[in-house]
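Go through this chain for my students:
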Amino acid sequence: MPRFHCPLPLAAGAQFDLPAGAARHVQVLRLQPGDAITLFNGAAAHGQWQAQIVEMGRSHVQVRLVAHEALECEHRRPVHLLAGITANERMDWLVEKATELGAASLTPLLAERSVLKLKGERGEKKRDHWQAVAVAACEQCGRNQVPVIHPAVTLAQWLAAHPQPPHESRAVLSLAAGSRPLLQAVPAGAGSVVVLSGPEGGLSPQEEAAALAAGFAPITLGPRVLRAETAPLAALALLDQG
């Protein structure tokens, strides 16, 4: 059944016009009045709604909510990615796949070795684009909670704004000797996890030292060197099993 993100208050029996983006998608799929669709608004623990198309015009699609489903398929615990911005389309791919794998949020990191530098209006446009990528990925993969794509920041800015709270584990992907396997370094059980990874070329020695001083445990994902857009995804998959 087609799924659409609908960032509106959803309640039993409600009848309303879909937002423009969802309406266009319905029209592209050539759906008709009477067809069933699934709607979700992306809010925490709000599940999804079965709906029926009741009217279609040249520029609008009206639907009626039929039944709520308290369905969630979130990660075992909140995992927040702090990921170095990668070049070209690789960041789009990272956002899409991180959403599919259950990331609670993703903060693009303006690392010292990042090739792509985002500032001002360009940075806001990129953030909006990546948030739209996350929404589309939720529509495809069945998630009802949309991960937040935060504004791009430097590591120093992120650390200054995020003192480590209780019950939060922190891990930084590292090639340094003595790094432990992820599931050994991050305790199992409740609590959120922040995974820090660098761009192509990795974090600088200064950035890694700052992360370690802020409570990040150096971790490894095995003997192979993974690409910048692959490593945080592997960490997400491991944490969903641990």
Q: What stands out?
A: The radius of gyration is 20 Å. The chain is about 30% helix and 25% strand. The chain has a mean pLDDT of 93.
